[in-house]
Amino acid sequence: GVDALAVAIGNAHGNYKQAPKLRFDILEQTASLVKAPLVLHGGTGILPDDFRKCISLGINKINIATATFDSVEQNVRTAYESSAIKGYYDLQTAEVDGAYNNAMKHIEIFDCSDKAELFKYFNWCLTSGATAAKRLQYVPLPENVVQLIQKEVLK
């Protein structure tokens, strides 16, 4: 079977010289014909309203790698120019901050900032080093995270 389907509706990987003209008609038709979650590759440079329209028409996953790479590069460049990088750990911090800034920007664009607590919790789960059983056993989940898991993950 198909786990997810990436659709081409005028989008492409990389940076655009101008915002793409997306074919929402193709997206809408595809969404009505398939049951698999739809993926939008080449999200960098797509306008915020176009992202939201794609989501409303059935896109479940959006790739923004180039925007993340660009944000990391700009953040590192700014840190070097301001002499904030004194060594590897400063460089690593600038890189992580650049990626984080882009992720948060897109969380806002995608209108899912109300789920940010869930993202923060899952990120902690991935980076804490503890096993899943230990994390769930020893760390009580905040009530808003429990509600989000019930609503978004267990639906």
Question: What key phrases describe this protein's structure?
Answer:
single chain, 155 residues, three-stranded parallel β-sheet, 7 helices, 6% strand, mainly alpha, globular
Task: Give the overall pLDDT as a whole number.
Answer: 83
- The number of distinct β-strands equals 3
Question: Approximately how much beta-strand content do the residues carry?
Answer: 5-15%
Low-confidence stretches: 130-138
Helix and strand succession?
EHEHEHHHHH
Please work out how many helical segments DSSP would assign: 7
What would you call the structural class? mainly alpha
> What fraction, in percent, of the residue positions are helical?
55-70%
User: What does the radius of gyration come to?
Assistant: 18 Å
Which geometry do the CA atoms define?
globular
C-alpha end-to-end distance:
22 Å
Spatial arrangement of strands, main beta sheet: 1-2-3
Largest sheet: 3 strands, parallel
Short précis:
By secondary structure, this protein is mainly α. It has helices at 24-33, 48-56, 65-81, 88-109, 116-127, 132-138, 143-153, and strands spanning 5-7, 38-40, 59-62.
What is the secondary structure topology, with strand pairs?
Layout: E1 5-7, H1 24-33, E2 38-40, H2 48-56, E3 59-62, H3 65-81, H4 88-109, H5 116-127, H6 132-138, H7 143-153
Parallel strand pairs: 1-2, 2-3
Description:
This protein is mainly α and 155 residues long. It contains seven helices and three strands. It has a three-stranded parallel sheet. Helix 3 crosses helix 4. The longest helix has 22 residues. About 6% of the residues have low confidence.
